[in-house]
Design goal:
The protein has one domain: TIM Barrel (Alpha-Beta Barrel), CATH 3.20.20.10. It contains nine helices and eight strands. Strands 7-6-5-4-3-2-1-8 form an eight-stranded parallel β-sheet. The longest helix is centred in the C-terminal third of the chain and has 20 residues. The radius of gyration is 17 Å and the shape is globular. The two termini are 23 Å apart. The relative contact order is 0.16. The protein binds pyridoxal-5'-phosphate.
Length: 227
């Protein structure tokens, strides 16, 4: 068996075990395979093993992969930092954009989303630890941005995304994810129909699932280390 297929089976079973441990339904947690810096052949191998959702961080790199994989029915997610002059490519080629951190970007995406495509799924990125090196907004700013994005006709606001600072132990890993979970609950209480917590990577997948993640973004554990 190819490594990528083996790894995928392993990651799926890790998701299932964590779900069982924390009284969650494994079917409520989707797996996004993060394929940044990996060639189209690797994506093909994952596809052959049943994977359909793939995440890319760099627009130029993603654009190079699209033609090589156009025969496959893939759901592309953009999980990188967004430049406002690059929104058209996102609007025309992706199913999801996870890193929304300002209204202007959301508005451009909505304006540029082709009518022939379903609404673009988006998540607001939260900088939970207020790290200067990371994009995302503070938790206190989420409610008002979410209200405004929710009005945009060609977007579908699905929920929240975060990439907390790394921690060794699971208790420390869970804390920022719990804050995201509370914030999603508050949005729901305010009448917003959001259903997604995009959180959990290779090193903190269990903590994220414990705190209600509905979409884990896994790169290294599927495709191996990136050079
Ligand atoms: C690279 C990346 C991932 C995947 O990280 P791994 O540690 O390789 O699983 C997930 N989310 C974002 C936003 C990333 O940039």
């Amino acid at each position: 068996m190819q490594n990528i297929e083996k790894n995928l089976i392993q990651v799926r079973s890790q998701i299932e075990q964590a779900a069982n441990r924390y009284q969650r339904s494994p079917g409520d947690i989707s797996l996004l395979a993060v394929s940044k810096k990996k060639p189209p052949e690797d994506i093909r191998a994952a596809y052959a093993a049943g994977q359909r959702d793939f995440g890319e961080n760099y627009l130029q790199e993603a654009q190079q992969k699209f033609p090589a994989l156009s025969d496959l029915d893939l759901n592309w997610h953009f999980i990188g930092a967004i430049q406002s002059n690059k929104t058209r490519v996102l609007a025309e080629h992706f199913a999801w954009v996870h890193g929304i951190d300002r209204f202007k970007i959301a508005q451009r995406l909505s304006d540029q989303r082709p009518d022939s495509m379903p609404r673009l799924n988006v998540c607001i990125q939260i900088n939970v630890d207020l790290e200067p090196s990371k994009s995302g907004i503070a938790l206190e700013q989420v409610a008002s941005l979410a209200e405004r994005i929710n009005q945009l006709p060609r977007l579908r606001l699905r929920g929240l995304m975060a990439m907390p600072a790394p921690h060794e132990d699971i208790k420390a890993q869970r804390e920022p994810f719990a804050r995201l979970r509370h914030e999603l609950y508050r949005l729901n209480q305010n009448g917003l129909d959001c259903d997604t917590l995009s959180m959990g990577m290779s090193h903190d997948i269990e903590a994220a699932i414990a705190e209600g993640s509905t979409l884990v973004r896994i790169g290294t554990a599927i495709f191996g280390e990136r050079l």
